[in-house]
Amino acid sequence: MAISVVDAFIRPRYTDQWFPNSVDFCLMDEFRALILDPSTDDSTITEASFKDIESCIPDAAGEWRLSQSRLLLELLPEGMNETTEDATSQTNDASTRLELATTFFSCKKCLGRGIVLQSKNKSAKKKESHPITYSRILTHDCLNDPSPVNDQDPNFEILSRLSIQKQPWHLQGDLVKFHRAASIIAHNVVTACGKDPAVTTASEMDEQDFRVECRRCSKGVSSRLAMTWTMAVCVNYSG
Predict the structure, then answer these.
(1) Phi-psi map region of 204: left, alpha, beta (phi>0 left; psi -120 to 50 alpha)
(2) Which residues form the domain of 156?
(3) What is the pTM of this model?
(4) Structural domains in the chain (count)
(5) What is the pLDDT of residues 120-154, one digit of tens each?
């Protein structure tokens, strides 16, 4: 009941793609306190119950995104996850590094299938999982799929009280990895577009709306294959 109430309360008001799902909100201090309050139960928790803490939602969502971004930052290879001593600069630098056009992740659970078209390159002996951008990994469905919760988990009490079809984002903590092969391809694609891969973000590439051509696919045919920069990365990487 609490999950459906939280979902009904939040979704009509906030539709930003960066927002956590309802289960993640239930783990936040203000929501947790209300749900675990011994004086409340499924019959007494309503949308009105959350009115007093509505003002905390934007800040709570921002904290969630920052927390998850820190975890993703730890997955970046040496040289991409360097930090500064100044905390403010560190936060800004972390955000920029994650948002680079060369930053791609993959999901170990689904291998990214269904997110982009699979490469038709049959000559590769090994293929890695398909690339997922930073913006999409935070909303990737597999990372919210339900799974058994260990009774030693600090969130066990509240999760066991919720009737849920989803779990908090990346609760298992070992399903995401940095996609090195896609990053290398992205570096080449960004360079081919005349941009500096060391500083160019994915949003900048999207705003420029670049189109690139695959010379191999276009060779010997009358038509020419043009792709967005992200599709060029996703269908041309190799393991």
Answers:
(1) alpha
(2) 2-236
(3) 0.75
(4) 1
(5) 444 444 456 789 999 889 888 888 777 777 777 77
